[in-house]
Amino acid sequence: MNLLPVVVTGGTVGAGLALLVRELLRAQPALGPALARSAPATLTMPEAELDREEKWGRWLLARLERLPGVRIPTTNRALLGQGPGQFMLKKTALAGLGLLCPVIATIPWIIAGVSLPFYVPGVVGLLIAGLLFITPDLAVRDQAKRAREEFAHALSAYLDLVALKRAADAGPAEALEKAAEAGEGWPFLYLQGALRRARLEKIPPYEALTQLAHEYHLPVLDDVADIMRGSATDGAAVYKALRARSAALNAELLADQAAEANAASEKMTAPGALLAVLVMLLMAFPAVIRMLTV
């Protein structure tokens, strides 16, 4: 028996599945773009310093963006720190891999003398290419959802820090900036960048937070901006409002985690039942065989 076709086909399918799983894995927002966004506008990376992948991807995007079905998730991609060129290059590369996988998989079978209709690899390749082409969109959507959840957890701590700064008689802008400087994660880098731009552009800090919330679709940040709008008149009331919003946000996050845990438990019901059935069949198999052979 010639094992070469089986080995090559299995390797090709395994490589495709590995790339698909890699796209769907949880990814943190890139630190480099976050630092670039937190810097003043004059210090951001110029267009000429884009890396090679970003340039090639933007070249592809300029030629493919008019095609139907080709779109770039701007908000989610910006939240994760992915450039449009890199995103488009990844989509195109995955689609090309999907087109080539069936062709490469049929070569060993052709060498072994097994004939296949010529249209079978083409049709299968188009289906796989279409699936892989939308995989980055699904991955970015899932990663952005998790990033927003992580931002909500960080914002809960940020609310407590701002409330403590206001209780210590710090001014509204000072409380927001000092609380943001206390953190080191990417959510705090975003907050630091927004507040730094507010100071340079001479705008109220709560307006910068509102712009940040709208730019990356962070609705939980709107509450902080709304609370801080009235911080100049009544510090005690703002302190209570911040602590109340922090407690409510923590309750919401715990409820979401409980719902997610319940959904994961329900998904494990069917595999658990199947495993129990298999164990019962395995235990009953010797007795059944003995009864049939007597």
Describe this structure in words.
This protein has 294 residues and is mainly α. α1 (4-24) runs antiparallel to α5 (84-111), α9 (205-216) packs antiparallel against α10 (219-229) and α10 runs antiparallel to α11. The chain contains twelve helices and no strands. The protein is flat and about 85 Å long.
Q: Distance N terminus to C terminus?
A: 37 Å
Q: What is the helix tally?
A: 12
Which structural class is indicated by helix and strand composition? mainly alpha
The percentage of residues in β strands lies in under 5%
Spell the H/E element sequence: HHHHHHHHHHHH
Q: What would the principal axes of the Cα set say about the shape?
A: flat
Low-confidence parts: 37-48
- For the secondary structure, the number of strands is 0
Kindly provide the radius of gyration, computed on alpha-carbon positions and rounded to a whole number of angstroms: 27 Å
**Helix content percent band:** over 70%
Main sheet overview? none
Q: On the 0-100 scale, what is the average pLDDT?
A: 77
Tell me briefly what this model is.
The protein is mainly α.
What order do the helices and strands come in, and which of them pair?
Blueprint: H1 4-24, H2 31-38, H3 52-64, H4 74-80, H5 84-111, H6 119-167, H7 172-181, H8 186-201, H9 205-216, H10 219-229, H11 235-267, H12 269-293
Helix pairs in contact: 1-5, 2-8, 3-5, 4-6, 5-6, 6-7, 6-11, 7-8, 8-9, 9-10, 10-11
